[in-house]
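Duplicate of #3305? Posting structure anyway:
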């Protein structure tokens, strides 16, 4: 009997992978091997962004891509079992670093994105933190692997033996007085400092975290990983791997195979 496209073991299984960032929302349809079957679609993240609008945007993007049997959404913040505990950008009036809108914060708190996307698209849905989805696309599933994504802010995901650890928003912790890791290494500071000085901060970040995690491998991804200067790359160490931002979509196909806790 031929395998159905919605059979989890079928190589023809298609996944709509959606990467929701602070500045843009990107998506594509991939098969079980992570091969794209269309040109990726990217739209600017609209603000203000209530939950219903994000679901609408995902549905509109899905209409521009080939059919898929399931959907994976990666979004910033603390997500537990598809439910938003906290999201940093989408509760603001006009995007990252703008003022928080109390009404939006209330709408996003405890919002079940996974159920809303599943109901709207009519297919099984999986919603995780965006760095966790990114990590699913790159990890070797061996040893302790830390994934850091460099973009609007700093995203992170930790895996041990391929198993996803509970998410920690330690990027909101202070790296120095009055400055969080997000603010220290995020896009605003990269633009202010330039790639050279910003890359030195990336090296300092890695050196500071190495004795905390004692990872076997550290993956640096996200849109800004390609902005790290060659001299900084040489100083990062052999246990650090730079990965392409496309992993955020490849991970959408592979995240379903993660042994979630």
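Output from current build:
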């Amino acid at each position: 009997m031929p395998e159905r496209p919605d059979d989890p073991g079928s190589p023809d299984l298609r996944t709509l992978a959606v990467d929701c960032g602070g500045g843009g929302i990107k998506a594509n349809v991939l098969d079980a091997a992570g091969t794209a079957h269309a040109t990726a679609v990217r739209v600017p993240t609209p603000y203000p962004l209530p939950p219903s609008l994000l679901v609408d945007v995902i549905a509109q993007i899905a209409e521009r891509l080939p059919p898929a049997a399931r959907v994976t959404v990666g979004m910033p913040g603390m997500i537990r079992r598809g439910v938003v505990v906290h999201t940093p950008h989408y509760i603001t009036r006009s995007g990252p670093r703008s003022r928080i809108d109390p009404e939006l914060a209330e709408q996003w708190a405890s919002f079940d994105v996974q159920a809303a996307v599943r109901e709207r698209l009519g297919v099984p849905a999986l919603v995780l933190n965006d760095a966790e989805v990114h990590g699913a696309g790159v990890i070797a599933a061996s040893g302790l692997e830390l994934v850091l994504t460099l973009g609007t802010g700093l995203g992170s995901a930790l895996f041990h033996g391929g198993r996803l650890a509970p998410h920690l928003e330690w990027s909101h912790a202070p790296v120095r007085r009055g400055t969080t890791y997000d603010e220290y290494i995020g896009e605003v500071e990269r633009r202010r400092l330039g790639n050279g000085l910003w890359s030195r901060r990336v090296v300092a970040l890695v050196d500071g975290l190495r004795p905390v995690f004692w990872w076997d491998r550290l993956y640096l991804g996200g849109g800004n990983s390609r902005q790290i200067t060659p001299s900084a790359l040489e100083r990062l160490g052999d246990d650090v791997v730079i990965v392409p931002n496309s992993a955020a979509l490849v991970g959408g196909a592979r995240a379903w195979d993660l042994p979630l806790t």
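Confirmed duplicate; merging threads. The mean pLDDT is 92. The CA atoms of residues 190 and 197 lie 8 Å apart.
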